Protein: NAD(P)-binding protein
Amino acid sequence: MAPLNVLMVGTGEYTTGWVGTGGSTSDKKVGVVGLTLFDLRRRGKVGELSMVGVNGKKYPDIRNHLEKNIKNVYNNLDVSFKSYPADTAVDPDSYKTAIDALSPGSAITIFTPDTTHFPIALYAIRKGIHVLITKPATKTLEDHLTLIAEAKKANVFVYVEHHKRFDPVYSDARAKAKNLGDFNYFYSYMSQPKSQLETFKAWAGRDSDISYYLNSHHIDINESMVPGYRPYKVTASGSTGCATDLGCVGGTEDTITLLTNWVKKDDPSKTATGVYTASWTAPQKAGVHSNQYFHYMASKGEIRANQAKRGYDVTDDDLGGLSWYNPFYMPYAPDEEGNFNGQTGYGYISFEKFVDACTALNEGRVTLAQLDVRGLPTLRNTVVTGAILHAGRVSLDEKRSVGIEEVDGVLRLV
Structure:
């Protein structure tokens, strides 16, 4: 069978490293999606590549950026792709044209504002196309459940890009947590510097929030640690001021905390608490792009993981001080022969697992149910995360605690 053809939906920082006015200044200067797929094409796992955005006028700059920062840096890495819309056009519905050009069994990746995930994914699923969606899969629990049903009907794979599952420390912690007895307490924190608000200003506070963007990582980790528990109540609180001072719309939260109550499914006398905090107003020179850590406590032990400062620091006068790097996410440095060397990074592994799963499904070597059992971040394996995030947003908007019920195996907010 021919390699998987892939359409990249979204042309921004995570896909290309280009942010409209130039290359990103974050730790993803050449992006992740495009770079990974270019290498998977070199390795024969991916076939034809295409990209779609709203504004085709960006493509000349994007191509120059990729030529300079990828093709001219690594050996044998072809950065070509077919693009939609034309370089002179602006078309918010161009994703439909691009998806229509794919054959059933092809795949798309979605890295666009959160409110667009559902309509793009649904359109692709109904065309028989496999889908990778950046977290959160959707903003509402109802939309998440709709995608599960539609994907099952079309027999296509939908994967939520929760790459923290493949961070070697987090992955090991998830495995060990399952042997530590009953879940009791989980606390997490994740933040990014205020400079990110400039990148996300077009949608921050309008279409989505920092909890959907960052809390989604640790909620997914917690969910995957405790399959025997379910959440039953979410109470959210947020702080405001910094983001709006920096030009975001009024009411944009700087920091959001979700207090979540959990209960053991087969023993309601056992309950647990999850506290998830996310912020995008950390200091500009915090030394890391993402502060990220958690504390998990259970009846027979506890786990603490700090993945911000990994014992690897660099002092650079041009950067203004000490910085902590994360080479485990995506090693960008070429190998001794000048080849791309990032295949062991968990940012890369996440995409490779999606591509491999789509290929196996196309070839009849695996079923959707078997992919769910593998513990991959499928739609079905992330529905609890979707419910908590949606409940948190409702809690903030309506200033109340929001319940989560399970009726006949299906979650709903109350």
In short: Residues 346-362 form the longest helix (17 residues).
